[in-house]
Design a protein that fits this description.
Layout lengths: L2 H26 L3 H13 L11 H48 L5 E4 L3 H12 L4 E5 L2 H12 L3 E3 L5 H6 L7 E4 L4 H14 L4 E5 L3 H10 L3 E3 L1 H14 L1 H11 L5 E7 L22 E6 L5 E2 L13 E7 H13 L1
Parallel strand pairs: 1-2, 1-4, 2-3, 4-5, 5-6
Antiparallel strand pairs: 7-10, 8-9, 8-10
Helix pairs in contact: 1-2, 1-3, 7-8, 9-10
């Protein structure tokens, strides 16, 4: 039953009570509150004692009022109960469907917190077709932003709770980012995640520079301070405005160019080949850097540089070409 139908039921019950109140007032002339009380106990048939003596006309009114109103009251109460039960059942089915959807995810990201930063992160991941799950305690906020607007998978709960992290599929996740309002909550999430997965990539937000070291010690691989990052970007705008415009192209969701990191695995078709032997340049992809598994960095790499298992390639080029390259490597 839809919400407008519930509104009709409530209006009907109110009108029945008001009709009884006015009827008792006109016939018996009793105080308004006593008349309303008599109307309610008559409709609900609770059997309390009459608050004033009924005249013969009043007794006839009670008979007519019961015959006409009791059926409508019972029907309305039944419909109201059915609506409450259906809402609970629908909520349970939606939760079950969401859990099945999350259980099918693999190598996804977990985003803890759906504030302004959390929504921006989720929108970026969604624009780049990357799987993710959101965790937040505000169910209404999650429903509004995830279920109704974007169809994003989510878990309602405290991200510092191990059970909630497990429900978000932390055992299959590729990374986790925590952007909760306080540094203490972010540190607690990092500690909980590290206890469950010691190989998980964790990126966290810090409210100020003082908290950066503490959050890194807790186990975060990367820590971002919005104020510091924003100040650095403003400084670059002052010094190199054209470069910032160029980088903005790569950061814009749905843009034609993409800046990405591609992890090379043993089964990759690029392993053992030099950059000039691959077809990357012909597809428009520029390899601007290579990070070896040993930590060695080649920036920029020469064309004779050989791609090895475990390398991370930093590539720049058309979005379609970069996505095709990533899909080819992941599919093998």
């Amino acid at each position: 039953m839809q919400v407008p139908r519930i509104f009709q039921v409530v209006v009907l019950l109110t009108l029945l009570a008001m009709a009884g109140m006015f009827g008792f007032r006109i016939i018996e002339g009793a105080p308004w509150l006593d008349c309303l009380y008599m109307a309610v106990i008559t409709l609900t048939t609770v059997g309390f004692e009459e608050v004033f003596e009924l005249s013969p006309a009043g007794r006839m009114f009670v008979i007519v009022y019961l015959v006409c109103g009791l059926g409508m009251f019972t029907y309305s109460a039944t419909m109201l109960g059915q609506w409450i039960v259906s809402v609970r059942m629908r909520s349970a089915l939606e939760k079950r469907r969401m859990n099945k959807r999350i259980n099918r995810l693999d190598n996804h990201s977990i985003v803890c917190g759906l504030g302004r930063m959390g929504r921006t992160i989720c929108q970026y991941l969604d624009d780049h077709n990357k799987p993710f799950v959101i965790i937040d305690t505000d169910e209404e906020l999650l429903r509004e932003n995830c279920e109704f607007k974007h169809n994003w998978p989510y878990v309602v709960g405290d991200a510092t709770d191990d059970a909630v992290l497990k429900a978000a599929g932390i055992d299959r996740a590729l990374s986790l980012t925590t952007v909760l309002p306080t540094d203490a909550d972010n540190v607690y999430v990092i500690l909980s995640a590290n206890m469950l997965r010691d190989d998980l990539l964790i990126v966290a937000r810090a409210s100020d520079e003082k908290a950066v070291d503490k959050i890194k010690r807790a186990g975060a691989a990367r820590v971002v301070s919005p104020f510091s990052s924003g100040a650095m970007k403003m400084a670059r705008f002052l010094l190199y405005p054209s470069i910032e415009d160029f980088l903005e192209i790569a950061d814009t969701g749905g843009g034609e160019l993409e800046l990405a990191e591609v992890q090379i695995t043993e089964s990759s078709p690029y392993v053992g080949k030099s950059l000039q032997e691959t077809s990357l340049s012909r597809s428009g992809i520029m390899v601007i850097g290579i990070r070896r598994e040993s930590g060695e960095r080649l920036m920029p790499p020469p064309g004779s540089a050989t791609i090895e298992d475990g390398d991370s390639l930093f590539v720049f080029g058309p979005s379609t070409a970069v996505n095709d390259m990533t899909a080819t490597i992941n599919a093998i």
